[in-house]
Structures are given as C-alpha cells and as structure tokens.
Write a structure and sequence with these properties.
The chain is an alpha+beta fold. The chain is built from eleven helices and 16 strands.
Length: about 525
C-alpha cells in the first residue's frame, strides 16, 4: 500500500520536472542569437511504479528527469563541414583567378595584345620608311612598351605569389588558434562529463569551432575510448591524415622558408616562400586536403593540370616571351642597320651584355657571339629571355642600329627585314596554339574558363552550404514561437502540479482535522 503522503511525492516530481523544463526553455530563449547554440530539451520518463497487491496492476509514482539532451543531427554536422571545406577551396581559388584576370587585363585597349599590335604597326611603318629616324625611334618606343608591359605583368604575378605567403601564414595561425581552443574544450568537456552529465554548452562551443575550422581546412573527427577509462570517449581532430588535436594534446603547424619553388625554377630567382609543416618536424601532406588553405596553396604553387596557379601563368608568359623574342632576334640578326653595321639582338635579357659584339643564332636558336662563344650569363646554352628580364638591347638606343635592311647595298631605303618580322604576326606554327595572337587569346581563354569554373563552383557550394545550414537550423536552432509555446505548456503543467499538491493538502486536512469530530 502506498504511503499516505505518496500523492505529495507525485505532485512534487511534477513540480520539479516542470520547473526544470521551464529553466531549459528560458536558457534556449536567452541563446536564440548565440552562434552555434543548439536547442536543448528535457528528457523525462515515468518513475518506477508501485505494484498493487492482489494483481490489480501498477500504481504510478510520478515522473523522473533523466537528461538534458541537444537536438542535433551528427550527419548534418558532417555534411556541413564537408561542403564548407569545398566552399573555402573554391572561394580562395576564385578570388585568386579574378586578380590574375585583372593583371592580364584582356580583352582591353591597354592589354598585351594591343601593345603587340602597336609594335607590329611600328615595324610596318619602318618597312616603308626605313631611313626615317623618327619612325625608327617609334619602333624602339613601341618595343620598349612591349617589354615594360610584360615585365609589369610578371612583377604583379610575382608580388601576388609573395602576398600569398602572408595569407598562408595567417591561415595556419587560424588553424593553430582554433586547434588550441578545441584541445582546451576537450579537457573541459571531459572533466564536466566524468560524473555522467552532458556538457551541452561546451560541446556547442567546440562544434562551432569545428564548423569554422572546416572552412579553412577539412577535418576528420573521431571518437575513441579513453584508455584509462573506456566508459568515456576522447575526441581526435585530424588534418591531412594526422591528429591536430588528440583529446587535450595539440600538435600545431608552422611555416618553413624555402627557395625551392616553381617560380624560382622558371626564372632563376631565389625568392623565399613558406612551406607548411607540422611543429614536430614531419611533413604536412597537402595532396589530400581541401578548404581555404588548399585554395591558397594551389594559387601560389599550382603549375598546371587541375591546379593552375600563378606559376602556371608565369610559365606560359615566359614561353610566349622567349619564343617571340628569339624569332624577332633571328630575323633582326640577319639584317643591317642604317649605319651599315650587321644586326644585333633586338631583345635581350636583363644582365646579358653584348658589348656591341655581333651575335648570330644557330639553327636551334642558340645565340653565340662573333667568336663562337655562348653569350655571357647564359649557362644553359640558350638566350635565356623570360617575362621577368626581357628588355630592348642597349644597342637599340641608337635608332641607326635597328636592322631593317637585308643587305648593305640596299641601304638606306630597304626595309625588307621589317617585313619578315611582320610575318611573325601570322606565323601559324610559332606555337601549338597558332600565331602569337592565338597564344595570348588561348591563355586568356583558359584563364577565363578556370575563373568561370571557380565562380560557378563557389556559387554552387554556397547554395549547398546554405541548404545544409538551413536544415541544421530547422532542427537545432531555437524557434522563439516554439519556445514560447513550450513555456506556456510547462507553466500550465507546473500550475496543475501545484494545484494537485493543494488538493492533496486539503484531503489530508480533512482526515487529520475533521474525521472523528462529528458528535463531539
């Protein structure tokens, strides 16, 4: 048989359950604008019932609160972080390619194609007026404009690559900062949950950090049993296949200076770039990562294929400049200047001095001086012109040295060598893409396609991220209307339990104070 005061215990359990549910509702409402907060719900169940003798059944004894749970879907968390990593990658790549498009500035009235057109027009004018010093000066000026434009494009690309060093360093600092915060939260969560509780608010902070970290670099999250106490789990956060955080242990990333870089290989420079490595000295594998860090590394280091970055466009620009300059030089070296001197290199590399010597190319385009020796500063056996160092030969400062004539006997009216140089403009076999104009158009076209792909994928990924985020918010986010409805519900439940207790009190008052008083 139940205790006389059993009804009070039932009402009391209802009061406490409703009060706790109201507290949780208030906590949800207070955090309606807190980033990363997950709404909570009180889990409750009927208390163990009491058996009634005689097989009459089980008599309920009230309600027990069992836990405060988060309304969260782990699959949506995984999906969000996966899509956020892709968004970070394509966003970083789209920004980089947009800046390269600005550097190339094509098609426009001031781009490289227009500069080349103006240079060829000056060659054509000189072919008709080969003895005119003003026209010769114009050729020199237009050629200088061409070399200056190419130099400027290269310098902007090189500066952009250097700037990426700081972006990458900042991104690594973000990874380290968030990793340290997650490691500290792991320790706090473990301490809070040793008693069997669930540290919901601390877990929200950790999940929010993981969401932010996943956009910077993709993360792999694992839960493993604590070796000291298998009942509890430890959280491992892996980046590039290696733990960044192992429970409360943190192994961060750092930057290492190096000159081993595609840009240096292409131009012979020794610019310092940053490589990413683990703080314990092991290699950081960037092949299988994603996120913003991967996008920045791709733009700074990508040489081609699926990873076209700054080195790829520098390499293509160098190829164009080298082939174009050597083709012009081959023709110019066979001509004669207005003063009767044999032709000299029209274009040269910065730092390569001919000292007025007559230089001639062989069938391979390699250039030797009059003594048959390779030009100074030319260890590879080629006239090493590229976008960073191309300039007009010092000898061209004297307009008389521009070799427009094919033979000294035809001076001063002959401009046939300029006509031969003009044919370069329509030389279909000069590049695999065709003539010089086709090469530039192909390069700009490829850049445009890559930029369009990056913009499209960025937009698509943003839609996916927003879609998953909305699904998460619909499940885990706090709805004020729903919480207000719950508040009214729990308030009525509390009032009903209180009314039940008042009723039980009145019943006991009758038994204690009124039963047996009749007839006294």
């Amino acid at each position: 048989m139940r205790s006389t005061f059993g009804g009070f215990n039932i009402a009391r359990s209802g009061l406490f359950a409703s009060q706790r549910a109201l507290d949780i509702t208030g906590h949800n409402i207070a955090n309606v604008n807190t980033p990363g907060y997950t709404r909570q719900r009180l889990e409750q169940m009927a208390s163990r019932p009491m058996r009634i003798p005689g097989g009459q059944g089980m008599l309920g004894t009230g309600v027990d609160t069992t836990a405060i749970k988060q309304i969260r879907d782990e699959f949506l968390d995984y999906k969000y972080r996966d899509e956020a990593s892709s968004l970070g990658f394509w966003g970083a790549k789209a920004d980089g390619l947009a800046f390269i498009e600005d550097i190339m500035n094509e098609p426009s009235d001031t781009g490289i194609n227009e500069v080349i057109n103006q240079m060829f027009e000056s060659f054509q004018e000189l072919s008709k007026n080969s003895d005119n010093l003003t026209t010769r000066s114009l050729v020199r000026q237009r050629a200088t404009a061409f070399t200056n434009s190419v130099n400027h494009m290269y310098n902007q690309l090189e500066k952009m690559a250097k700037d990426y060093n700081f972006d990458i360093e900042s991104t690594v600092n973000v990874i380290n900062t968030k990793g340290k915060q997650i490691a500290a939260l792991n320790d706090q969560i473990h301490r809070a949950e040793v008693s069997g509780s669930s540290a919901n608010d601390l877990r929200d902070q950790r999940n929010f950090l993981l969401d932010e970290l996943s956009q910077v670099v993709d993360v792999e999250i694992q839960e493993v049993a604590n070796p000291d106490n298998p009942k509890y789990q430890q959280t491992i956060i892996k980046v590039a296949g290696k733990p960044l955080v192992y429970h409360d242990d943190f192994n961060g990333l750092e930057m290492e200076k190096t000159t081993d870089h595609p840009i240096n290989d292409e131009t012979g420079k020794s610019i310092e770039f940053y490589n990413v490595k683990w703080q314990d000295g092991t290699e950081f594998n960037t092949e299988n990562i994603s996120g913003e860090l991967k996008g920045l590394l791709t733009m700074r280091d990508g040489e081609g294929g699926n990873e076209k970055g700054i080195p790829y466009y520098i390499k293509e620009l160098n190829k164009f400049v080298k082939v174009f300059a050597n083709e012009v030089n081959k023709i110019h070296l066979e001509g004669y200047g207005l003063n009767g001197n044999t032709g000299m290199a029209f274009f040269t590399a910065d730092g390569v001095e001919t000292n007025g010597a007559t230089i001639t190319p062989d069938v391979n385009g390699d250039i030797f001086d009059a003594n048959g020796d390779l030009l100074a500063n030319d260890p590879d056996g080629v006239f090493n012109i590229n976008a960073s160092n191309i300039r007009i030969s010092a000898e061209m400062e004297d307009p008389n040295n521009i070799a427009a004539s094919e033979h000294p006997d035809k001076l001063p009216k002959d401009g046939s060598k300029m006509l031969e140089i003009l044919e370069i403009r329509h030389m279909q076999g000069m590049f695999k893409e065709g003539k010089p104009e086709d090469f530039i158009k192909s390069l700009i076209g490829n850049l445009g396609v890559d930029a369009e792909e990056s913009n499209r994928n960025t937009l698509n990924q943003q839609i996916l991220v927003d879609s998953v985020h909305n699904r998460r918010v619909s499940m885990s986010g706090v709805s004020q209307d729903e919480e207000l409805s719950n508040m009214v519900k729990f308030q009525h439940a509390y009032n009903a339990s209180a009314r039940m207790m008042t009723t039980m009190d009145e019943m006991l008052d009758v038994i204690i104070n009124k039963v047996g008083l009749v007839g006294r």
